Amino acid sequence: MTGRERVAKFLESRRFQNFIIAVIVFNAVTLGMETSTSLMAGYGDLLHVLDHLALGIFVAELLAKFYAYRGGFFRDNWNVFDLLVVGIAVIPATGPFAVLRSLRVLRVLRLISVVPSMRKVVSGLLAAIPGMASIAALLALIIFVAGVMATKLFGTIDPGDFGDLGTSLFTLFQVMTGEAWPDIAKTIMEQAPTAWIFFVVYILVSSFAVLNLFIAVVVSGMEDELRQDIREEEAKQAETQAAANQEILDELRALRAELAELRRTAVQPSVIRASSGRGGP
Question: pTM, whole model, 2 decimals?
């Protein structure tokens, strides 16, 4: 086993992964403590040292991955994600880059790339993006149509909420989230008692139907990701089983060869003795 292979095996070991998770969680705690004025006044220097120590561990991990995987490092999207997150923290947070200091907390997101279950969730969400884009376009169309209708129907009744198309779109987005829509509807219904029909139909279509479609698409994407993981696991198990079967076959062939050799060596002395017996006086 070469040095790179040993380093790669160490990086992929469960013990090292647990260590990195512990460092990320510890770094998240120290970053949270830095938001406290009293803690910074008493332990600010220590917190900065601990933060730099965690950053040094992350940089060392990335360098080890560069050494172990070479160009293959960039073929893994999670490695690129880790590089970006850690790279932001390495940029000097002074002068025009002072705003980047607040982005150090992004290092906590490395838990996504380290914890397999989180990776599966994010991969499922990313796989669902094409379907989610179609549903988002459908939702935007529904809100636009409802906004035009609400502006024409309720613009004179409640100009503060439905006076123009932009205001109506914002109000309908608020209604879709369920925020204070009874108060908005009550104001309209004082002059238009049947306005409840519009609001009920709109909420049913936008909140329940379309948003449930979002959930269905995301769940479908996660199921596809789970099936892919199952197929990969089955393929690995098949390879392992094939290797084990081949090893057993090789051992059986070796045993058969040894038995044949033993039989041959056992038969030869008997033949020699028999030949000697026939040629004697």
Answer: 0.60
